[in-house]
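Side project, low priority. Logging it here so it doesn't get lost.
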Amino acid sequence: MSTLMSNQIEQQMLLRANGFIASHASTVAESKMRQRYHFMGPAGWINDPNGLVFFRGQYHFFYQFNPYEPFWSHMHWGHAISDDLVHWKHLPIALAPSEEYECHPRGGCFSGSAIEKDGRLYLIYTGTSNHGNGFEQTQCVAWTDDGINFVKYEGNPVLSAPQEVPTDFFRDPKVFEHEGKYFLVCGAQKNGRAQALLYTSPDLLHWEFMNVLFESRGEWGFMWECPDFFPLGDKWVFVCSPMGAGERTCIYFVGDFDGRRGRFYPQTSGEVDWGLDFYAPQSFRAPDSRRIMVGWANGWDWMPTWKDWGPTWRDGWCGAFGVPREVALDEKLHLVSQPIRELASLRDADTKTEIDSLIVESSCDVPVGDGISYDLSFEIDLDSTTTRCAALLLRAKGDLGLLVECDIENAELRLSRDTADGWSAGVSRSPLCLMGKSQLDVRICVDVCSVELFVDGGRVVHSINDFAPLENNEIRFQVDDGQLVIKNLVGYPLKAVTDPALTFELH
């Protein structure tokens, strides 16, 4: 196919998709389940964050996107920009599956990343096709000079799976620059075990295999989806969403990187998020040097069939991102995360709830705004608390609600949505280190259909979706024995940002 004809096909696909969004976005925005301050697509389905980058004075979010249906299929790259990571403006779709190397109807333009070089923004992504041999995943390049219109490289694909790697397990490139060289980390598999392959390039177009950066011996699953690799201080962090690793949905490793030999040497490991709904996060460096991470606020486990893709699909959309987080390392090389400081701009300080001390001996309701969209923080006084297990019900009504249990006796944190919304199910669990602590800090970000819990300085995080009706809006502490002592409780209602669907512009 000639380049001219290929470009014409792509432009037709982009116009069709952008036109479809423009005609459906206002209806989707009326959905009662739409998040108020979390990032969402203007319509249809979204999953993995892609190409998160600060470019020419603005934050750019790209994302896996099916504009036509609220289900996973026909992957495009959606695109939005922001000045503050809170208020977003949707731009036209960046990539549509128009080429032979991305033509699989159940594939398309899969996940990837972005990087700036000489004033030009490059997207590196996985193209997925089928030419009679099943899924074939290759790595491809596109770029933009104006931040809106993208050109696919005529030499695509720039990388194909090595001979020993199955062609359907070679995806999700993360590109970065280090010591004057460009590197690319790609998820792969060999002999049924996960690998992260490392490539180098002088120009982002011509890539050479360097080494196996890091690999599983079987204990970390059979495939690492959406690998991320970045420096924090004098250490490097490898993050991925492992397939075939049981309850683990997002893990990290901290260690040293030998850039000359292309090897990573891990020292510590842990969970980025223990919740049921945090997957495929990607990080980027903000202008002030913060490392910001954003994850997909969903998971594949609860979507095996058409009817299980969540309640919001009936309103023409599905999927959102979690609150962007600033990530750092503590003194023991554990990854810690907290909501970005920009979120505070949405706080309604005039109607905040503030309680210096609260003693709960049975049950106690604490109102924060409308009980649906808020930012709540407090400390559990462990020295004065005598209950074996402290409980908190969120988005509650009567006996229903998302149950948060701080099991002090067994040093475990649990979130259960079995009685939350009449649809969801499942419990997320994590150990909770209480040794030597006199208090335990807690921060909770709640929105229309999500709860994100940050505990112990962000060392333990749980993200979980909750599709409760809007009338379920109570916040209740409760104990079955002894007393729970709460200190320094502060709750802020969070103002809704304009639904990004309403700011979509068709170029």
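Brief comment: The chain has a mean pLDDT of 94.
Revisit when time allows.
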